Amino acid sequence: MNQTILAPQVLLAEVTHRCPLQCPYCSNPTELIKKQTEISTEAWQRVFAEAASLGVLQVSISGGEPAARRDLTNLIKAARDADLYVNLITSGIGFTQQRLTEIIEAGCDHIQLSIQDVDPDGAELISNSSGSLEKKLKFARWVTDASVPLTLNAVMHRLNLDRLPETIDLAIALGARRLEIANVQYHGWAELNKSVLMPTREQSDATNQIVDQARQEHQGRLLIDYVPVDHYAEYPKACMNGWGRVALIVAPDGSVLPCHNATNLKHLNFTNVNDASLENIWYESEAFNAYRGDSWMPDVCKSCDRKDIDFGGCRCQALAILGDPAAADPVCSRAHPQNLIQPEHAESTLIHTKEIKYRSNA
Q1: What is the pLDDT of residues 21-65, one digit of tens each?
Q2: Lower CB count within 10 Å: N or C terminus of the chain?
Q3: HEC per residue, the chain
């Protein structure tokens, strides 16, 4: 074991890529993992036990839509039996009130509900599913009626950012304890829809002000986490709080990843939980050690006083825009003062929503 590497704190368990919604910014890869290659209930039980032994404190059970797995209640019970804090990340679609009761009784500690828009037509446009907002609101009320802590995850983009104040009001009205205002990150499906989803500079600037004001107004009542528009930032985000520093992801087929889109880095091999323990993968695998520390960094990053803040930024973004996963994040104004990623089409007033490329259903 490499004693200089800290133990992970969070496991993101992507138990399936199946989902009833087809959101065009889905964080899952464009090549979705099929049901027949998903690892078994027993394999997940072992993963949860190994994660707890490794030092993980919290598991977020995600997808796709986790409710697509018939064994979801058993998975939650296994995670709780491993003494992990269990957070369920869900669209709310596919749940009955009885099934919600079952997962709560199995040990679900917290529920994070995604919403596509506060406007029914906007929600239908993004999810490609009729009546999705109404179903989500009903689910949210079931959660709060059961006294389970609720986080609202509002994914924001050009088509709904102007309704951010209403989104904040909805979180308050639903009794959410936390609101995640997450601007779309342009990888995978979102990269395919950048021309439709990328906000304008004016929207981005207005969002920053709205978030600051809301944090002051609702302090002590609603915790607001904010992921700003990456392409307008002066400095890169600390992707996953640093590569292989805090969190690990287990994909539906058992592949263990340092970030959601790591499979884009074709030069890396990602070990499967069927082939090695989580401990071995976390400490010893090539993929998790590839961009740890600063030895891999270009000189401009290695000498930067922000290297322990953003940890070099996003490797997938460096690959996508610069063709080199070890390059300085193209967002960074210090490394790239010429602004390498001026958003395309973002200032156009004409948006063709018929051009949306919806994710498929695994």
Answers
A1: 999 999 888 889 999 999 999 999 999 999 999 999 999 999 999
A2: N
A3: CCCCCCCCCEEEEECCCCCCCCCCCCCCCCCCCCHHHCCCHHHHHHHHHHHHHHCCCEEEEECCCHHHCCCHHHHHHHHHHCCCEEEEEECCCCCCHHHHHHHHHHCCCEEEEEECCCCHHHHHHHHCCCCHHHHHHHHHHHHHHCCCCEEEEEEECCCCHHHHHHHHHHHHHHCCCEEEEEECCCCCHHHHCHHHHCCCHHHHHHHHHHHHHHHHHCCCCCEEEEECCHHHCCCCCCHHHCCCCCEEEECCCCEEECCCCHHHCCCCCCCECCCCCHHHHHHHCHHHHCCCCCCCCCHHHHCCCCHHHHCCCCHHHHHHHHCCCCCCCCCCCCCCCCCCCCCCCCCCCCCCHHHCCCCCCC
pLDDT tens column, 279-314: 999 999 999 999 999 999 999 999 999 999 999 999
CA distance to 3, 256, 291, per residue, from 284 (Å)? 11, 12, 13
